Amino acid sequence: MSKSVSFALNEEQKEIQQLARRFAREKIAPAAEHYDRTHEYPWPLIREAQEMGLTTMVVAEEHGGLGLSLFEEIVVAEELAWGCTGVSTAIGVNGLAYLPIKIAGTEEQKQEYGGRMADGQLASYCLTEPEAGSDVAGIRTTARREGDKYILNGSKTFITGATVANFYTVFAYTNPEQRYNGMSCFIVERDWPGVSVGKPFHKMGQHASDTAEVIFDNVEVPATHRLGEEGTGFMTAMKVFDRSRPATAAGAVGLAQRALDEAIQYAKGRNAMGKPIWQHQAIGHMVADMAMEVEAARLLVWKSAWAVDHGVRNTTISAFGKAYAADKAMKVATDAVQVFGGYGYMAEYPVEKLMRDAKIYQIYEGTSQIQRNIIVRELFRS
C-alpha cells in the first residue's frame, strides 16, 4: 500500500514549526498591538528574525540562506502570521524580492545577493504601478539599453518594505512594443543616483509592514544586474506568483487560525442567558464553520506548496489556495468579531485588528477576482 501521501510533518518540519511558533507567540504577538498603534517598523523583531534565518528561507544554503522547501516555508509563514500579519509580511517580503534572483539569476547574482541578505540586508519586490496592479503587462516603467547599461525610468507603488530595503528587484519594459515578450527584470541598489522612496502610506491594517512608492529617475543600471535574458521578465513574474502565492495564502491561514482561537477562548468565558455562549447553537455553529473553513484553506495551501516541491505545475491549485484562504480569512475574522459582539468592535480586543489586517489578503499577490480569472482560464485551456 502506497505511503506517498501524508498529512503529518516529519521531525525536522516539526522543529521548524515549533521554532516559528515560539517566536510568534512569545515575541511577535505581545508586540503586535504596539506596532499596530504606532505604525513603527518592527526593527527588533526583524533583526531577531534575520538571526533565525527567517528572512532568507528561500535562499539556498550554498548562497547563505536556510534553503527551505516551499512546504516548510508555508508552515513557518502560517505560524508567524498567527502572531501578527504585519510583522510576518515585513519578514516575508524579503523572500519575495529574492525569488526573481532565485528563478532567473546567475550563480554570481544568487551568491552576491543571497549573501547580502544573510548578512542583514533587506530587499523589496517592485512590480505594481499606479496604473498596473492586476494587469502586470500594463506597467509603464522602462529600461532603455545604452551600451553596457540600462537607463531606468518609472515609478512603483504599494511596495512592501520599500523604505527599509537595501536593494530592489524591479520589472520594466526593455521593449514596450513586445508587451509580454518585452519585459525584463533588474536588481537595483537603493543608494544609486535617481532612486527615491516616498513616505509610508497610511493603511487600513498591517501597520507593522511599511508600504510606499519607489521612483526611478534616469537610474543607470549595469547590464550585469539584469536577471535572465531580455524579454523574460513577464515569465519570471508569473513563476514568482506560482511560488509566492502559497506563502501569502499561508499567512491568511495563520490569521484565520488566530481569529478562530480568539473566538473559542472568548466563547468559553463569556456567559449569556445562564451558560457559555458557545453552548448557544447560533454561536457554536458559527465557530464550527470557522474551524472547517480554516482547515480546508490550510489543506489547499499545503497542496499548492507540495506541488512546487514535487515539480508539479501549480498554477490552478495555487489560485484555489490563494482565493479560498484570503476569502475565508476575511470571513473568519469578521465572524470572530461577531462572536465577541460589541467587544469585538473595540480596539482593546485583538479581533478588531485581525479583521483590518485580513482584508489585504483579498487584494495583494493577485486579487480574489484575478485568482478566479486564472482558474477559469486553466479550466477552459484547450
Structure summary:
This protein has 382 residues and is α+β, with helices and mostly antiparallel strands. The chain is built from ten helices and ten strands.
Number of helices: 10
Radius of gyration: 21 Å
In the predicted model, the low-confidence regions spanning at least 5 consecutive residues are none
By DSSP, the count of extended strands is 10
Portion of residues in beta strands equals 5-15%
Q: What is the arithmetic mean of pLDDT?
A: 96
Q: Report how far the terminal alpha carbons are from each other.
A: 35 Å
Which characteristics define this entry?
382 residues, single chain, 52% helix, 10 strands, 10 helices, 4-stranded mixed beta sheet, 4-stranded antiparallel beta sheet, alpha+beta
Description:
The chain is of the alpha+beta class and 382 residues long. It has a 4-stranded mixed beta sheet with strand order 1-4-5-8, with helices on one face. Strands 2-3-7-6 form a 4-stranded antiparallel beta sheet, covered by helices on one side. It has a two-stranded antiparallel sheet with strand order 9-10. The chain has 10 helices and 10 strands. β2 (142-146) and β3 form a beta hairpin. The mean pLDDT is 96. Helices cover 52% and strands 15% of the residues.
Write the layout of secondary structure elements.
Elements: H1 11-38, H2 43-52, H3 70-83, H4 85-104, H5 107-118, E1 123-126, E2 142-146, E3 149-160, E4 167-173, E5 183-189, E6 195-197, E7 211-222, E8 226-227, H6 233-269, E9 271-272, E10 275-276, H7 281-309, H8 315-340, H9 350-358, H10 368-379
Parallel strand pairs: 1-4
Antiparallel strand pairs: 2-3, 3-7, 4-5, 5-8, 6-7, 9-10
